[in-house]
Write a structure and sequence with these properties.
Mean pLDDT: 91
Number of domains: 2
CATH superfamily of the largest domain: P-loop containing nucleotide triphosphate hydrolases
Radius of gyration: 24 Å
CATH class of the largest domain: Alpha Beta
Length: 310
C-alpha cells in the first residue's frame, strides 16, 4: 500500500520548548492510524503540522504527495479535519450547517444520506446548541466528510463523551474507513486505540517511542498476562516452586490464600492442571491480558492514567 502521510525528522519548537523531537512515521492508504499518548505529549501539535495549520521548525511532511503549507488550498479539497476544539453558530440547525458547507465544494456528497449514515438524520432540523456532545461530534464528522476526502484527521474525537457515546463514535470511525478514507486519529484512551487502529505510534515528550500494529506492540512490550487466584488454603512452598518450573510461567507469588501468577501462552491452563493434581481448589479467579496501557508503562515507567489525570 502507498503512503498517504509521511513525516521525516519533524521538529517543532515553541521558544525553548521542543514539542516535537525528530518525529518520523508513515501512514498507509486505507488504514486507521492512531497517535496515542498522554495530554501534552505532542499529538495535536503533530496533527496541526500535518494538516497545514502549523509549520514545523524543521523536517519534511508530505500528505498525498503534497506539502501541507505550500499546497494547502489543494489539500483542503482532499482532506477532512475534525479539530479537538470546534464550534458553529449556536442557533444554526444541522441542515443549515450542512447546506452552508456543501456550498464550499464543487462535488459534495448528498448530505441527507451522510447524516443517515452517521445516525443523526432525525436531528437535521435541530439547532446545534441543543445537541448532545456525541451528536455534535457526529455533525463535525459529517462536515469533515462532505467533500469526500481521501484522508480524514480526527483529533481527540471522543474526549468528554460518556462511555456509550464513545462506543457509538467508534462505529462511526469504522464507517468512515469503509467509505474509502484513510483515518489518522489522536487519542489518550488506550482501549480506543486497541479497538480501532491498525497501527499506532506512541508519542511521549514529543518523540515517537514505539510504532507498530497493536498486537505487535503488546507482544513485544506489554509483558506477561496475569492471573490472581483465591485458594481454599495457603499455597505451599513446593507449589510455588513447581509452578515456576513450568515453561509457561514467569513468576508465582503467594500472599496468604491468594496466588498471583504471570506467564505466557497457555500458562493459566497449566497452573489449573497443577492445582487440580494437588487437590487445591480455587474460590475466585481473575485474569487480565496485557494491553497498550502496559506497553506505555513498560516503555516509560509511568502509568498513562496518571499522566492523563495530571
Amino acid at each position: 500500500m502507498s503512503a498517504v502521510v509521511t513525516c521525516t525528522e519533524v521538529v517543532r519548537r515553541f521558544g525553548e520548548v521542543t514539542a516535537l523531537d525528530n518525529v518520523s512515521l508513515e501512514v498507509t492508504e486505507g488504514e486507521i492510524f492512531g497517535l496515542i499518548g498522554p495530554n501534552g505529549a505532542g499529538k495535536t501539535t503533530l496533527l496541526n503540522c500535518v494538516e497545514g495549520l502549523d509549520r514545523p521548525t524543521s523536517g519534511r511532511i508530505s500528505v498525498l504527495g503534497r506539502d501541507p503549507i505550500a499546497d494547502r488550498r489543494e489539500l483542503t479539497l482532499l482532506t477532512g479535519v475534525q479539530l479537538q476544539s470546534a464550534a458553529l453558530p449556536p442557533r444554526i440547525t444541522v441542515a443549515e450547517a450542512m447546506r452552508l458547507f456543501s456550498g464550499l465544494y464543487d462535488d459534495p456528497v448528498a448530505w441527507p444520506e451522510l447524516l443517515t449514515t452517521l445516525g443523526i438524520a432525525h436531528k437535521a432540523r435541530t439547532r446545534v446548541d441543543r445537541l448532545s456532545g456525541g451528536e455534535r461530534q457526529r455533525v463535525f464528522i459529517a462536515l469533515a466528510l462532505i467533500h469526500q476526502p481521501k484522508v480524514v484527521f480526527l483529533d481527540e474525537l471522543t474526549t468528554a463523551l460518556d462511555p456509550q457515546a464513545r462506543l457509538a463514535m467508534w462505529e462511526v470511525v469504522e464507517q468512515v474507513r469503509e467509505r474509502g478514507a484513510t483515518v489518522v486519529l489522536t487519542t489518550h484512551y488506550m482501549e480506543e486505540a486497541e479497538h480501532l487502529c491498525d497501527r499506532v505510534g506512541i508519542i511521549d515528550h514529543g518523540r515517537i517511542i514505539a510504532l507498530d500494529t497493536v498486537p505487535a506492540l503488546i507482544r513485544d512490550h506489554a509483558g506477561d498476562a496475569t492471573a490472581r487466584l483465591a485458594l481454599t488454603r495457603p499455597a505451599p512452598a513446593e507449589l510455588v516452586s513447581a509452578l515456576e518450573r513450568l515453561d509457561t510461567v514467569t513468576t508465582a507469588r503467594p500472599d496468604r490464600r491468594y496466588l498471583t501468577v504471570q506467564g505466557t501462552g497457555g500458562f493459566l491452563q497449566d497452573v489449573l492442571t497443577d492445582l487440580t493434581a494437588r487437590d487445591i481448589r480455587i474460590t475466585d479467579l481473575r485474569a487480565g491480558s496485557p494491553g497498550l496501557e502496559d506497553v506505555f508503562l513498560n516503555l516509560t515507567g509511568r502509568d498513562m492514567r496518571t499522566e492523563v489525570a495530571s
